[in-house]
Amino acid sequence: MVADHMGLSQVVRSERIASGEHRYVNRINWACSALTQAGLLGRPRRGHYRITNDGKVVDQRSLSEYSEKDMLEWSVWQTYQEEIA
Fold first, then answer.
1. What are the residues facing 16 on neighbouring strands?
2. CB 15 within 8 A of CB 48
3. According to the model, what pLDDT value does residue 81 have?
4. What's the CA gap between 66 and 25, in Å, rounded?
5. What is the pLDDT along the chain (85 residues), one digit of tens a residue?
6. Which residues of 42-51 are buried (b: 16+ CB within 10 A; e: fewer)?
7. What is the sign, positive or negative, of the torsion defined by CA atoms of 1, 68, 23, 13?
8. Which pairs with CB-CB distance under 8 Å and at least 24 residues apart come from 2-9?
């Protein structure tokens, strides 16, 4: 659904990383993981995500992009970054 919503071409959809996984799927998974670590998404069960109140705050800004650097506004993300550094 994401690929359709974003209008990804068949060429982009066919790209794979070394593990064989589709590149766009891998990037979506990494994004969901980071957003969950930042507290912007909740994960009620495997493969299911729910936007949190903090995530709704970000969504209401109608930004064209939101990076890992931007997520430093959230203390939980700052703490996570310190732990993995």
1. 22
2. no
3. 94
4. 18
5. 999 999 999 999 999 999 999 999 999 999 999 999 999 999 999 989 999 999 999 999 999 999 999 999 999 999 999 999 8
6. eeeeeeeeee
7. positive
8. 2/28
Q: Which two three-digit tokens encode residue 4?
A: 């359709």
CA dist 58 and 8 (Å) reads: 24
pLDDT at 25: 96
Q: Contact at 8 Å (CB) between 58 and 67?
A: no
Write the DSSP symbol of residue 64: S
Let me know: does 57 contact 40? Beta carbons within 8 Å: no
CA distance 14 to 12: 5
